[in-house]
Design brief:
The structure holds 2 protein chains of 2 kinds.
Chain A lengths: L2 H28 L1 H7 L1 H32 L8 H13 L3 H11 L10 H25 L3 H9 L4 H31 L12 H9 L3 H29 L8 H6 L1
Helix pairs in contact in A: 1-10, 2-10, 3-6, 3-8, 3-10, 4-6, 5-6, 6-8, 7-8, 8-10, 9-10
Chain B lengths: L2 E11 L6 E11 L3 E5 L6 H8 L7 E6 L2 E2 L5 H6 L1 E4 L11 H5 L1 H5 L4 H14 L4 H4 L9 H13 L5 E5 L7 H18 L2 E6 L2 H7 L2 E6 L2 E6 L1 H6 L4 H7 L3 H6 L4 H4 L6 E3 L4 H11 L3 E5 L5 E6 L10 H4 L6 E3 L4 H10 L5 E4 L5 E5 L1 H9 L1
Parallel strand pairs in B: 3-8, 3-9, 6-7, 7-8, 11-12, 14-15
Antiparallel strand pairs in B: 1-2, 1-4, 4-5, 9-10, 12-13, 15-16
Classes of the chains: A mainly alpha, B alpha/beta.
Amino acid sequence: MNSKVFFQIARKGLPAIVTVAVIIFLYKTYGAWEYTVENLPEFFKLTYEHLVLVLITMCFSISIGVTLGTLMTREGWEKISPVIMAVVNVWQSIPSLGVIALAYGILPMIGLSGIGLIPALIAIFTFSVAPVVRNTYAGIESVSSDIKEAATGMGMTKQQILFRIELPNALPIIMGGVRTSTALVVGTAPLAFLIGGGGLGFWIFTGIALVDMGIMTAGAVPVALIAMLFDFILEIVEKIIVSRGVQADEAQLAAL
Amino acid sequence: MGTMLKLDKVTKIYPGTDFRAVDELSFELEEGEICILVGPSGCGKTTAMKMINRLHPVTSGKIYIDGQDVSSMDTIQLRRRIGYVIQNVGLFPNMTIAENISVIPNLLKWDKKKINERVHSLLEIVNLSAEEYRDRYPRELSGGQQQRIGVARGMAGDPPIMLMDEPFGAIDPINREHLQNEFLKIQEKVKKTIVFVTHDIDEAIKMGDKICLLQDGKLVQFASPEEMLTHPKNDFVRDFVGGDRTIKRLNLFSISKVMRDDPPLVQASAGLEEARSRLSEYGTDYLVVLDENGRLAGLAADEDLQKKGGAVADVVQSTRAYLDGTASLKEALSGLFTHDTGFLIVVDGDKKVTGWLDTNDIKKALKD
């Protein structure tokens, strides 16, 4: 085995091994394993709620984020786009807990409940859509004008240029936004519990309140695993949907 | 052969200015001709070209392709009928080479099999192996290879007209020369009507059937390269083509048209006696020695032939004072100054001797 192959395996395998070791250590040390086994039905219910929260928010973030980001690059949006970008950037600098609190405070003003799954979804969505919008916009804007000119000169319609040229070439950047967004969603999701949104946050905050490391770890570890799982899935999706001609190649990745 | 492209008093004024970027430009192109739009930067040559496929709308005047007014045609359909090659190639990075080439055939809804065959034959035409390159991505190719794919992509829909915007501008001089030659060979086969923009007058002279020299949006001279070099219309043209006009004309002749077909030959197996009589017959300092297959073996010098006895094969010296018949007179002149043989041998691809020439032949060609 040459050193390059070894490096590749080490790069992918080592974090996984370390993570597993840390999880076992945490479960054993604080009694989280026993707690989870004793409350298995609740564990599944909370995990299910958590996954639903994450998946629904991601669907909205990606579909609305990509659409808005794309629209911002279209003719007629030149004046509005910088404004949207400014809002998006400011919005993202608000801490996630603040967004949850804002949803709790503001939604009742417009006649909606501030408590429950829907406000949690809205709060996490507004927080996580920003990177998708920003990266879609930046990704499409970064497609070189030569390529677009060639496409126009060859007789492609605006729609063909968007779907065959602009979006596929912007895809690596868009996927970067999607991964950032997913990380935000998964990281913010436990906070949903605070406004009655359910999910694994229940155990985390209960554990904190009771100063019981076992309960807290029983909630925190699955949250971390879900985060890693989603990142892994997205990495595979990226490999499949991004053209090999615009993927960062292995040599570049190894240098990171 | 009819008129393929006609520009009739085409004018372009960019909105918000009264500057005439292109001013009443008119010319006609026959089918299969290459027309080079050339001029200093800002002369309107690129604008003029981009009005043909309506990337820039014309302000006034008409453009006809094959007798049809382009302004009456659907923009998208029009562009699909015109091959377009740009300076920075603009291959689509997300598509393989085959996909890049088949963009227009796909837009024209050709069937899969026909597209496949087209990709294969185009890669062959531009001298890249289909097996090796069709599934690669643009970033895996060198700049020169990318540009060839750019040309192949432009030809893919079999358009009657191609527009090329400084296609070799971003390529280093050595590869550019090579690509130009290759492109001319391709054009021999495909005979497209081509509008080609460049700022390089040497490229214009080499590639063009017609040169359209522009200054400040106005047509200064529309003529063949030969005409432009021998009869520049005014001082601007004279300056633009440069003080070395005569040297540039050398590029226009291939040596096979100028050479004489009676070189001072001798067989390697011939005796020195016979060689000496040949030498005095021709009055040259060297004899061209042929091997038994009639290929160039080298030269035999006057003083070496004065020995007694033996054969020419004993005194033959290898030489590089020969050129292929397709070379230009410019290369021939350079060769004549490099080698002190007094003449150059002309050979074909098989290294069979087909003729010879010296400086007098070049002078004669320039005089005619």
